[in-house]
Specification:
57 strands; four-stranded antiparallel β-sheet; Neuraminidase; Mannose-Binding Protein A, Chain A; mainly beta; 7 helices; 4 domains
């Protein structure tokens, strides 16, 4: 019925049953209170509700009992400064002070909705749906400003965002979600409402990030999320590590084949704002510039890469000013105009466009079905025939050589590189399972079943089954196996029980511990109750080769043609493709798993392992990536000092080798593939003859590695030979 968001991002709703629920992870808490209709939450986590009969109650974050107030109300709101307001039964606004509500001046209409802005002042919606906003002077008789448009509900965020569920000033026919944009200088439109993705809402709140949290007309809650991403509409960008003036920043981006970043939508603005490098600085350059108009004495703000007008604006208060013609993005997401000669770090972006769609919007439902929604990346260091994952995030593979390995990372220069840990002796595994305790299971080529007991592989034997074809393990430790005879078996207290089912080839386990199988008929079958033994066949996928279930409720399957399909339990007819073998270079998918957070991972017919690219694995175009970082072999020869300066100017450093053997191998491999013979690295003894250090300050004193990799009669003490190189062969 209503929704509220706290400063710590806690989400509260009032249900149709009149009870209050709090979002805890991916689930809702046990119900609190009763007869609640409207809700608000203060920065300290104190929850205020209004009942159907008008009773106002509050529950402190550490309280166990609700407190009641004497004044009756129809709505309640709480601001980022802790101020609480209500609309009383007569349509007047009142504020809370020392445990009591006081009517506040003359309300301009009969109000029925109230919110509280970040400065503690109220904004209201009247019975006739008109919208009023109070000024900043907290005294009796304060003036109210009427805003254009009509609304059903209104909400204000802690960053100053004001949103409504309603119509804009132009009388838009559909009741959508609108954000209020304050009057800007040099902006002919004046105050206006900006349409936000999503519709069908009846109640609204605004979170820390300025995004709307809504309750739909059907009583469902929703808020923005990275719901799906098109391979054609994913934005690629990077934030520089060094500062330049606006013109040099623009030239640097263009030299890389990119643009100084334009910001086309509110979602893009939010994505850039939340970048870690942006949050470390007050402002970064983006691609807006105030260009003079020929034949006129005024200027117009446009994007530098295409000279088009801004379709989206997010100026800070009293901006743009007359000082400065270049656009900067502040770390709070607002825009500022600065003198172009000032030096700032900057954002470069590709030509593609981001498409972040709020959860619950009709647009998401209409587009996600036809998108290649996952950008898979090949994982190095292993060749595999099967893959499995658990709720802990452990990833196991059955290697092409029959060995079972677990995925992990090693740190190098602050970045993660792939590392695979082998488990025990070779059991000739062809299928692998990920145990809830973090240990793997395996099915061998001869059909034997093995469990790893933390030290060694132990064969699991039973008179109940013969040779095994596949294994599935649930988050609660439920173990199911599919026999080569097509029958399935369930382990109960170390005993194996046969379960009546369609003939199975592959098996997995859902979130309730029930089996899901690929049948010999190519269909997906789901058991709804272990004790009842009731099965149903899922429509939408035929030719099933493998199937997996994620802990968040996703259902993923591979088909005979190598495609990967995805659906949600409860919506199994709404399948969409996340990987098409006919349109990708990754081969045909053969096995599949779903890891923590719904991350899809799999193997292909070439025994390669894939899962989605992580944000930290971004590599600039035109550079060669051997691992998740970039190795750049310059085409132009420079002296050592010029090479070091070039690397630092580009936000990097001359390469260091601090991991015994591995880093040297990576460098040599890069040289070989780039037809090089030797290249400068960061090793030098410039400060003191014979004392070799790295130019990278993070590894300055780590000299162990190259001490074991010097060439013959190296290093020598010849004058002026103070800088190190790496040869393509030792």
């Amino acid at each position: 019925m209503d929704i509220a968001v706290g400063l710590n991002k806690d989400v509260y709703i009032t249900g149709e049953d009149g009870k209050v629920y709090k979002r805890e992870g991916k689930n809702w808490s046990k119900p609190m209170g009763k007869d609640a209709k409207r809700i608000a939450v203060t920065p300290k986590g104190e929850v205020f509700t209004v009942s159907n009969s008008g009773v106002v109650k509050s529950l402190g974050a550490k309280d166990s009992a609700w407190k009641s107030y004497s004044m009756r109300a129809v709505d309640v709101g709480a601001g980022a400064n802790g101020q609480v307001w209500i609309v009383n039964g007569r349509g007047k606004v009142a504020f809370l002070k020392k445990g009591k509500f006081y009517v506040y001046g003359n309300t301009p209409c009969h109000a029925n909705r109230v919110t509280v802005e970040h400065d503690g002042q109220p904004a209201i919606v009247c019975k006739n749906r008109r919208i009023f906003k109070s000024n900043k002077h907290a005294h009796h008789g304060q003036k109210w400003t009427q805003l254009a448009g009509r609304a059903m509900d209104i909400a204000a965020g802690p960053s100053g965002d004001l949103m409504i569920v309603g119509q804009n000033s132009a009388g838009h026919k559909n009741m959508g979600i609108w954000k209020f944009i304050e009057r800007q200088r040099n902006h002919a439109r004046g105050n206006y409402w900006y349409r936000v993705n999503g519709q069908g809402a009846r109640g609204i709140a605004v979170g820390m990030n300025g995004h709307p949290y809504v309750v739909s007309a059907h009583g469902k809650s929703a808020w923005p999320t990275k719901a799906c991403e098109s391979g054609k509409k994913r934005v690629w960008y990077f934030t520089s590590k060094f500062a330049l003036n606006w013109y040099d920043a623009k030239a640097h981006c263009e030299k890389q084949g990119w643009h100084l970043a334009p910001v086309f939508t509110e979602n893009e603005n939010y994505s850039f704002q939340k970048d870690k490098d942006v949050q470390k600085r007050n402002e970064v350059w983006v691609g807006g510039h105030n260009y003079p108009v020929q034949g006129n004495k005024y200027k117009v703000w446009r994007w530098s890469h295409n000279h088009r007008h801004f379709s989206f604006r997010n100026w800070a208060a009293n901006k743009p000013s007359r000082r400065g013609d270049c656009l900067a993005l502040k770390k709070n997401g607002r825009w500022n105009n600065l003198d172009c000669k000032q030096e700032r770090t900057f954002i470069c972006r590709s030509n593609s466009v981001i498409d972040l769609i709020p959860a619950g919007s009709n647009h998401m439902k209409n587009t996600c079905k036809n998108l290649k929604a996952v950008h898979f990346k090949k994982r190095t260091g292993v060749s595999a025939v099967d893959i499995a994952s658990n709720s802990r995030g452990n990833v196991f593979v059955a290697g092409k050589d029959g060995k079972v390995s677990k995925h992990g990372y090693r740190k190098w220069h602050g970045m993660n590189i792939n590392h695979w840990q082998q488990f025990g002796h070779n059991v000739q595994a062809v299928r692998v399972g990920a145990g809830a305790d973090g240990n793997p299971w395996a099915v061998a080529r001869n059909g034997n079943l093995y469990e790893f007991d933390s030290k060694k592989w132990v064969q699991v034997k039973s008179d109940a089954f013969g040779k095994i074809a596949d294994i599935g393990i649930g988050a609660k430790g439920n173990v199911w196996v599919a026999g080569q005879n097509g029958k399935i078996y369930h382990r109960v207290n170390n005993n194996w029980i046969i379960q009546g089912a369609p003939a199975a080839t592959k098996i997995t386990v859902d979130t309730d511990g029930n089996p899901v199988i690929c049948g010999k008929d190519g269909q997906i079958h789901v058991m709804h109750n272990v004790t009842g033994g009731r099965w149903s066949t899922l429509a939408g996928v035929s030719g099933c080769v493998d199937v997996a279930v994620g802990m968040e409720g996703s259902l993923v399957a591979t088909k005979k043609n190598g495609d990967v399909m995805k659906a949600k339990f409860g919506k199994v007819t709404e399948w969409h493709s996340v990987y098409s073998a006919s349109h990708a270079k990754g081969g045909r998918a053969t096995s599949i798993a779903v890891g923590a957070g719904g991350r899809i991972m799999g193997t292909n017919n070439k025994n390669s392992v894939y899962w989605p690219r992580d944000k930290c694995e971004y590599t600039k175009p035109g550079k060669r990536a051997t691992y998740p970082w970039t190795i750049y072999i310059s085409k132009k020869a420079l002296d050592w000092h010029a090479a070091r300066d070039k690397c630092r100017k580009d936000g990097g450093e001359l390469a260091s080798a601090v991991n015994e053997g591995l880093d040297m191998a990576i460098m040599k491999d890069a040289l070989n593939q780039n037809k090089g013979t030797d290249a400068w690295v960061g090793h030098n003894d410039l400060e003191k003859e014979g004392k070799w250090v790295w130019s990278d300050k993070h590894f300055r004193n780590n000299t162990k590695t190259l001490n074991n990799h010097w060439g013959k009669n190296m290093p020598n003490t010849v004058e002026n030979k103070d800088c190190g190189t790496v040869f393509s062969n030792k």
